[in-house]
Amino acid sequence: MKKMLGLALASVMLVQLAACSSGTPSAEGGAKTEGAQASGASANKQVNLRYSWWGSDDRNKAILAAIDAYQKMNPNVKIEGEYGAFASYYQKLLAQLTGGTAPDIVSVDYKWVQDLIANGKPFVDMNTMKDKIDMSGIDMKFAAAQAGDGKYLLGLPIGVNAIGLLYNKKLLTDAGIQMNNEWDWDTLLEAGTKLHQADKNKYLMFLNNDHYIYLLKSQLKQKTGNNIVNDDFTLGFKKEDLVEVFTYFKKMLDNGVIPPFTEAVQYESVYADQIPNWLNGNYGIFPTSASKIPSIALASKFDIDVARYPIYKNPKNPGIITSPSMIITINSKSANIDESAKFINWLMNSKEAALILKDTNGVPAVAPMAKLLQEQKLIDSNIARMVEEALPFSGTPENSSSLNPEIDTILKDYVHRVGYGKLTPEQAADGLIQDVGSKLKELNKK
């Protein structure tokens, strides 16, 4: 699947490129974007907006540059940027929403969407903004699934992210392993066993804490078609499904597909750019989200490439995690909802903004902007291809219960117990089911 990203997104996202490539209104009434200047009386009215986001230093600098460009075109508009660290961003946002001090324009992570909807829908329903924001270049089914509840659309995806496999080309080629986009879990196990048998210092894959959970959730979804927790707070899998996943994980350890847990646990909270055995060429594959690729590529002194995340043969759900890199929305209590919408329209749909932001938000969610950056080689080709390969195999979005951090903590605990050899797959399955079941009873009472 070596197609141009623009064509892939056009076919996968089902958008009409011609409708919005010129920045003119779409058939649904999207607003003009080129220039994005205010007109009439509003051009003379001073408007002050606040806009919050998180992310890398590159993202921060790019958004500030975009704000500066917009203010030069709209001298009556002043936008105050509020950049924050991701670790504390959500708690601060909740406090601002409670206190009535939240910014006009807000960035939201997809994992928070269902909780925010359940707690009062504090943002404008973006379905009502179609006459002010051109949405014709966005896959609205993807947007609705990731940022809404069927009727209410909390925000719009500003970029698209996906999980895949990043790999050391030389290490795998030297070992006679042919990486491709058709791997299933058996292929991965066979290739990893072969590599480690040939050289006991080499391991095919490294998993950090998050990616143990991705593996567990993805395999269960591929087996069952369900999220780990159903919408009715029941488990989405049976014991035998979980035993099979834990057994697979144990085989990865026993066969040297992944390094011993005592070695890996030292780096379980970092990415490949900080892992010595990746940097010195002893680890072959690092599962990662596309947005993490630039920093890893910069630190790696060897050629890297990407491939699709593994999928079981004949899965009930392909299960690959795709998500918005960020969701952008408008505070329903803002005094400047229309002006906020104008800025969002320009930020997402104008060529000028796209050329400033580049790939700092992943692949742009607006297909013509993604195509523009691809054509001008302003998107890292590995980022583009990882997203491109994942999108046709996107799993259904996780519900809020499946994303609950307390549930994730339980999953990580049992992965560790199996990893350290403290529990058999059967014992771990029994314990996890009991502990998650107890937590779900608590959540269901709230």
UniProtKB/TrEMBL annotation:
The keyword Acetylation does not apply. CDD domains: PBP2_TMBP_like (cd13585). Residues 1-18 form the signal peptide. It comes from the Bacteria. InterPro entries: Bact_solute-bd_prot1 (IPR050490), SBP (IPR006059). Keywords: Signal. Pfam families: SBP_bac_1. The keyword Signal applies. This is Sugar ABC transporter substrate-binding protein.
